[in-house]
Amino acid sequence: MKIDKRINVDVVRFICTLFVVAIHVYPFTFLGESTDYLVTRILFRIAVPFFLMVTGYYLLPKALEDKKKLTSYTKKITLLYLESILLYLPIMYYNGYFKEVNMISMLQDIFIDGTFYHLWYFPALLLGIWITYFLLKKWQIKQVGFLVFLLYCVGVFGDAYYGIIQNISIFKYFYGIIFTVSSYTRNGLFYVPIFLLIGYLVKKKQNKSGFGKTLLLMVISTFLLLFEGSILYVNEIPRHSSMYFSLLPLSFFAFSLVMENTRGSNQFLRILSSWVYILHPLFITLVHFMAKRISFLNHSLVNYIAVLVLTIGFIFILKVVKEVVKHGRGFSNG
């Protein structure tokens, strides 16, 4: 019997979702702002690339054989994004979003930046997956790899390395145009394609280095990322902190290690990861409101744990209610 090899993917995906929540909550500031930055703004940046590599691994090979697979996936993600937009409309209204926004900036938010701070992922994924698909359809993998790496380089210098080039007139003008269209270079053009391609390459070629060597290379890449990010941080160079050069080898070796050592599957964890990602800002807002009245919630780590407990607890409650309604209907129909 063929085994569906995804248990480690689902477990790691869930862990990466916890990383994303941490990025938005700053849980380690009680140890100092620099420590929190080191962990959440540098090390935990592996989270979103992992999501993208999983998509590249599972979806792109199927999509290249049958475009309908990609079309179906696009419809599913678009619907999820639209539902997420509707979900956050009350908070956007409460925060005064509609008092400041105009039609152009609203379209920019919907199609590029995301209408809430974590929703950028959906338009970026949709744009990035179609770009990568068309590139792979037209060109050889090496050509595609070179192009998406160049795009990533453009993104890096508009992100973590921006301070190096921001005062050079030609680059200031060039990135000024980009930032008129998109608030960040962490988007579907510069950021997403290379990680989708890494996932696709791991699927197609599989790393043959062996467990020990791959683990060693992953550890070395981790230290390189921490070193790179720390140097940039100390020198106050980043405009944003999503894109580092060392993130590329770390992503490749970490993902290869996971995909070479997977067994089974866990659909519940997969679904839980998605809903924690979508819902956690709601509970960040709630805990922030509660912290005004419950002082110990102001502790950064307690705040983080509270957000996770409330988010996951709410999802479990929804699951229980869904099961009760489902069985209740079955009983009444019987």
Gap between N and C termini, in Å?
Answer: 36 Å
Give the low-confidence spans.
Answer: none
Structural class, by secondary structure, is: mainly alpha
Look at the structure and give the mean pLDDT: 93
Order of helices and strands: HHHHHHHHHHHHHHHH
Quantity of strands, as a count: 0
Q: Biggest β-sheet, characterized?
A: none
Describe the structure.
The protein starts with 6 loop residues before the first helix and ends with a helix. By secondary structure, the protein is mainly alpha-helical. Helix 8 crosses helix 12 and helix 12 runs parallel beside helix 14 (247-259). The longest helix has 34 residues, at 300-333. Helix content is 75%, strand content 0%. The chain has helices at residues 7-25, 33-42, 47-58, 60-65, 67-94, 97-100, 103-113, 121-138, 141-156, 162-165, 169-181, 192-205, 211-234, 247-259, 267-291, 300-333. It contains 16 helices and no strands.
